[in-house]
Amino acid sequence: MPPKLDTPIKPVSKAASSHRPETVNKASSSTDSISNADLMAVLTTFKSDVLASNKSLSDLHATQYKDLKSDLADVSSQMTEMRKENARLQNEIDFLKEKVATLENSNVAAGSDLVVSQVLEETIERNKCRSNLIIYGVTESTFGAIPQRISYDRSTIIDILKPLGDVIPLNTKLVRLGKVPSDSARPIKIILDSNEAATNLLSKFNALKRSGTIFPNGFRIGSDKTLLQRKLLRSCHSELDRRVK
């Protein structure tokens, strides 16, 4: 059974029915017009921002390119200067090499001359030493005057060497070596007339010692030596002592 309607349905007139869609269309058209305007404004703003950004980037790139170009020019200039400096330094090095070579050759020549001079000097000194003898173990004189001290040394040596005969001529020069010590006697250098006289005296003394002749305690005779020979002898003694220890 159909429901009962309390209020009767009013019929809609044709005029009212046709007027409502027109109103809706006008509102929709107005909304579309506002949206397009806003969209265009946004697009315009975006376009302006993009153009401004592109211009800024373009200006930045131009500035960077200009700076890079300037830096490259500076580097190129510096490289040119460095090439010139390297060339100058190379010339100086070549000059110094030639100078060193010249000096080395000069030093070699000078060194050779020095060696020859030293050899000649050593040869002369050794020839002088051959006519000398060194006597050890002769007590020091208590006299204060030098002539009296020399006379004492001469007479003492002659007395000790009596078994050898007259081997000490009167004109033989005697020299005490070193400073006056307080605890030991200084050695005496005897300067003879010739190498043969010195060799003869030393040979006779050694022969008497081997035969059993007794001399004062500490008395001995040795050959004279140059400064170089004494240095070498001390070096040998030091090395021998080191090896014995």
From TrEMBL:
> Which sequence ranges form a coiled-coil region, renumbered to this chain?
65-106
Q: Which GO terms describe its biological process?
A: proteolysis
> Which GO molecular function annotations are given, in alphabetical order?
peptidase activity
Outline the segment boundaries, as ranges, of region: Disordered. 1-31
Superkingdom to which the source organism belongs: Eukaryota
Please provide the record's keywords in A-Z order. Answer: Coiled coil, Hydrolase, Protease
Q: What is this protein called?
A: Mast cell protease 2-like
